[in-house]
Amino acid sequence: MPNVSKRGENIAASPIRKLVPFADEAKRKGKHIYHLNIGQPDILTPPSAIKAVQEADMQVLAYSHSAGFESYRRKLVGYYEKFGVTIDHNDLIITTGASEAILFGMMSCLDSGDEVIVPEPFYANYNGFSTAGGIVVKPITARIENDFALPPIADFEKCITSKTKAILICNPSNPTGYLYSKEELLALKEIALKHNLFLFADEVYREFCYDGKEYTSILTIDGLEDHVVVFDSISKRFSACGARIGMIVSKNKSVISTAMKFAQARLSPPTLAQILGEATLDVPQSYLDKSITEYNERRELLIARLQEMDHVVCPKPTGAFYAFAKLPIDNADRFCRWLLEEFEYNGASVMLAPGTGFYYSKGLGQQEVRMAYVLNKNDLNKAMDCLQEALKVYPGRTVDAIKQSLNS
Amino acid sequence: MPNVSKRGENIAASPIRKLVPFADEAKRKGKHIYHLNIGQPDILTPPSAIKAVQEADMQVLAYSHSAGFESYRRKLVGYYEKFGVTIDHNDLIITTGASEAILFGMMSCLDSGDEVIVPEPFYANYNGFSTAGGIVVKPITARIENDFALPPIADFEKCITSKTKAILICNPSNPTGYLYSKEELLALKEIALKHNLFLFADEVYREFCYDGKEYTSILTIDGLEDHVVVFDSISKRFSACGARIGMIVSKNKSVISTAMKFAQARLSPPTLAQILGEATLDVPQSYLDKSITEYNERRELLIARLQEMDHVVCPKPTGAFYAFAKLPIDNADRFCRWLLEEFEYNGASVMLAPGTGFYYSKGLGQQEVRMAYVLNKNDLNKAMDCLQEALKVYPGRTVDAIKQSLNS
């Protein structure tokens, strides 16, 4: 039998999805599972956007332009303008989710063996795309004690080699909920210019900022035009994860023309979903305002509940819809699986994403979990009831270990 | 400015799409363009499948399972059974077009530097996916004189090195329209077993076979269970290219579980299009019968028209909906661009795909073009009028060169 590839062996299973078989099994046994493991919002997709698909005249479901509908791209220029971003419709390509934007960005800018610096914990799927391309991830650890802020620039400097081609951030951050300040972006600018690096920014959560904090797109930073590549998606802002519509945006013409060759190889992004995507641009701001208010209330609820729990540490997120918490547990993977297999409270349990999967450095995240606050407040409360009870009875509960690590 | 990647530089622009700007310009000037360059059928997508999307209850357009809807995968088992293929619903993953199936297959089975043998001319986008993965394509030239049949096994033997991991065929073939016989598949079996190679088969055109020729899926060949990986798509059979729904199929559990990790990294295939895809399985056989009859008539028309043209050589295709012809021209790229920029007949011209883009070996295909017979017979006739007239006046017409090459 021929062997699968080494890169295929090396790619880690998604921490967000790898426990799905245990969740399925729990559900089969009649247990209700509250899904905080995955950023799949329960917010309604804008009905007007769904209607646009349902009412579209579709005789032949044809390929689109490889860069996506021109009409959609032209409209997106206006969308970005709202965030102070000035681009042309040729500065972007519609992709099959932000996933494909990340793939195109990495493939277009980095060769096998090249290095990309990524503050960790980071969105685990970056690993998949880098592994596919033979790209080496160099993690720099952001600390829970600092609310997962940008690590010191000195840490970046230490990490840079002749192979370093890019820095990748997620702003606001999945999985930590941290929103980078303009000062942090300017610090990144300095290092990108100094070492001639690409600056990749995954900005799919840009609408979701809290506590009056101001969002700055890296595309608005002057002097970085040739360095910045942004990955974007409608999945979260319009609760349309299943559409698989994203964008790659860059003012660097060589990057876009290179990404275009990868785009042509896969022919076109999904046509039905592009109709939906284009229609989301006519959705009134009130839809987003309502979503943001709802997420903010969930955030307050989640953090308040976590604060009630003994020995749980969780920085209050200022963006996105994730919280990254430290729990008094021995092993996050074991705990998350135990929650599904062994634990039950009022006929239910909660599914979390183990922190380990978001760190590249081995051994980190063992006591951490990511929670997506994508459930309504009633369900979120019940999910927190489960977690609170679980932490009282989990056999691997290790309060001492937590204390120790906080003091270290 | 940081430089784009070498792999990005090396990836060739799609021969099917790279002339699009010239076609767009011609259209702006009022010229009608008959598109024979791309396999975008004009056949109606099954209205019942479109209706399924339009009537679906979609409140939240959510991610699906990374392998695609389980209901759809279970139904697909029955579809494959019709072709004598026995699989389980866990032997396949729904992908974003066959494009993603090819990407997953290559990434799961080959490492950077590994070699895949591909009979040329071949579907040009294989290049894009192999280049992305640092995979080396080793072409074996199929000859127009032999109707582009499988090259002699001795040619494969000569090509195999310690780096060879796979052979990739397209059956029936895009771009040549050649349908491999069972004997040819058995010859491939022998060499795959002898050298422990994967056998990749792109079978997206399996429904389109003519002249009573029998189609054999490589999945039905005994003893190859661990070697075969099939790439599939609904794009052509259901005229749903824009859906972007495909499948990767293999009985090799390691291949599917590895592909699944890549599938999880990109979260899920498009949800709207999966609804359409699942509904296509309820489309009556009469839909396909009608399409096949129509394509067969177009094929007869196209070949008859080409035979009338002086010094044009074109094997009669027995599958898919492409013909690969040798024309009395100096340079296919120049000719195809000239057709768009300089030529006009009755206010129209024809767009063809230059043959060069389908060969990996430099210098081949200079006098060849691929034609997709995806237009109705009236338009196809007019497109052939254009070609016939163009060949009379094209400045780079080289009858002598054709004669010479046929004699060589």
Structure description:
Two copies of one chain form a homodimer. The first copy, chain A, has helices spanning 6-10, 20-28, 47-54, 70-81, 97-109, 125-132, 153-159, 182-195, 253-265, 271-280, 285-308, 332-341, 377-393, 399-407; strands at 32-35, 92-95, 115-120, 136-141, 164-170, 198-202, 228-233, 246-249, 322-326, 348-351, 353-354, 368-372. In chain A, helix 3 (47-54) packs across helix 10 (271-280) and helix 5 (97-109) crosses helix 9 (253-265). Chain A has 14 helices and twelve strands. The first copy, chain A, is an alpha/beta fold. In chain A, the strands form three sheets. Chain A has a seven-stranded mixed β-sheet, sandwiched between helices. In chain A, 39% of the residues lie in helices and 14% in strands. Chain A folds into two domains: 6-44 and 286-407, Aspartate Aminotransferase, domain 1; 55-280, Aspartate Aminotransferase, domain 2. The interface between A and B is large, with 87 and 87 residues.
Give a short overview.
Chain A is α/β, with parallel strands linked by helices and about 400 residues long.
Helices and strands, with pairings:
The structure is a homodimer of 408-residue chains.
Chain A: H1 6-10, H2 20-28, E1 32-35, H3 47-54, H4 70-81, E2 92-95, H5 97-109, E3 115-120, H6 125-132, E4 136-141, H7 153-159, E5 164-170, H8 182-195, E6 198-202, E7 228-233, E8 246-249, H9 253-265, H10 271-280, H11 285-308, E9 322-326, H12 332-341, E10 348-351, E11 353-354, E12 368-372, H13 377-393, H14 399-407
Parallel strand pairs in A: 1-10, 3-4, 3-5, 5-6, 6-7
Antiparallel strand pairs in A: 2-8, 7-8, 9-12, 11-12
